[in-house]
Amino acid sequence: MAKVELRNVRKSYDRGKTWAVNNVSLEIADGEFMALLGPSGCGKSSTMRMIAGLEEISGGEIYFGGQLMNRVKPSARNVAMVFESYALYPTLTVYENLAFPLRSAGVKGDEVDKRVRAIVEILQCEDLLDLKPFNLSSGQSQLVGLGRALMRQPNVFIMDEPISHLDTRLRSRMRSYIKRLHIDLGYTMLYVTHDQEEAMALADRIAIMDVGNVVQIGTPQEVFHQPASVYVAGFVGEPPMNFLDCQAEHKNGGYQLSYKGHAMPLPDDAAALAQRQAIPRDVVVGIRPFYIDVAAERSARHTTPAEVFVVEPMGDSTVISVNAQDTRMQIVVDPATAASSGDKLWLALEPSHILLFDKQTGARLS
Ligand code: ADP
Ligand code: MG
């Protein structure tokens, strides 16, 4: 196990004409579970492959436990990797698949058996040992793949979208399984995913990437409640945060917010923001779907008019999509709320959950 550090790491596949990884700096503490989250093509796998030593580092430094890794061979880095397409040896039994990394590292007889049994106990897959890979379900294959990666007690454990091809139910089972594995084994883990829910559920901290750059690093709570930008705010959370283009007007030391001529409530930190004159004229109001209340009539709180587009009953909650003038918003309400397509509603945004962003830069105003 080791602390992992990336300092200004870059990757170009075409000698500097374009950058797949532009500038990534990260510190993953010994034993920490860090998720690397971002859309497809933003440079997650390139970053992982540089850490594992499978890809040359175009710029910057990578350290394990304070030791520079840039010129260290992959085999000497002792990084375990699990990919989405993790191929087991088709002609070997599960037992032999698990034993393989040890045998090829020169570990002998009894010791191999002891280590295989230990991993099998953690994975609770004794009943699979004599099977060949073609007899395994996709979940079982992935479990054995995980087990095989763990055999050599790695310094760093990297998983690159390991469960994204599994169906929803199996994915959530494997997810809690991976989380428990980390708690039991305490490895330094790096987990790549484009699925924000997976990152939120698993990681101690999440590094969010946007085209080659890390744009925010924080705990799931931090990236959810204090997103650094519209990009992060929109990426994390389901249904996603709603955004309204608003105008801020300064008035006697304070300011007022309006959305297409309708007054908007001010966020709780409005006074502090106004005092520092930190509000540009064009702002984006961000509000999560859980923090909007709906009413049939206008009231002191319900000041934003909207029309119901569709209503989606989820059982324990209901999602209402509305058009607030030309902006589509999603609202999560109690299933007892009566609403149907075409209804006129009034929305109340909870001031303690309103976030403000600079329309021009996308940065959160705080
Ligand atoms: P992610 O894992 O986030 O989807 P990747 O690291 O795979 O992103 O890719 C980042 C960018 O680098 C993409 O534009 C991709 O096309 C490019 N890329 C990845 N691998 C190679 C490669 N071996 N050669 C050339 N371009 C590559
Ligand atoms: Mg990838």
Describe the structure.
The protein has 366 residues and is an alpha+beta fold. It folds into 2 domains: 4-235, 3-Layer(aba) Sandwich (Rossmann fold); 242-358, OB fold (Dihydrolipoamide Acetyltransferase, E2P) (Beta Barrel), CATH 2.40.50. Helix content is 26%, strand content 33%. It contains 10 helices and 20 strands. The protein has a 6-stranded mixed β-sheet, with helices on both faces. The protein has a 5-stranded antiparallel β-sheet with strand order 13-12-11-14-20. Helix 3 crosses helix 4 (109-123). It starts with a strand and ends in an 8-residue tail after the last strand. The structure holds adenosine-5'-diphosphate and magnesium ion. Magnesium ion (MG) is lined by residues 44-45, 160.
Short précis:
By secondary structure, this protein is α+β, with helices and mostly antiparallel strands.
How much of the sequence lies in strands comes to 25-35%
**Rounded radius of gyration (Å):** 25 Å
List unreliable stretches of 5+ residues: none
Shape: elongated
What is the number of independent domains? 2
Query: What is the CATH H-level superfamily of the largest domain?
Result: P-loop containing nucleotide triphosphate hydrolases
Order of helices and strands: EEEHEEHEHHHEHEHEEHHEEEHEEEEEEE
- CATH architecture of the largest domain, please? 3-Layer(aba) Sandwich
The overall strand count is 20
CATH class of the largest domain, named: Alpha Beta
Lateral strand order in the biggest sheet = 6-7-8-3-9-10
- Class per helix and strand makeup: alpha+beta
Q: Could you say which small molecules are bound to this protein?
A: adenosine-5'-diphosphate, magnesium ion
The residue-averaged pLDDT reads 93
Ends distance: 37 Å
How would you name the oligomeric state of the polypeptide chains in this document?
single chain
The major sheet is characterized as: 6 strands, mixed
Write down the CATH topology of the largest domain.
Rossmann fold
Q: What is the overall number of helices?
A: 10
- Helical fraction: 25-40%
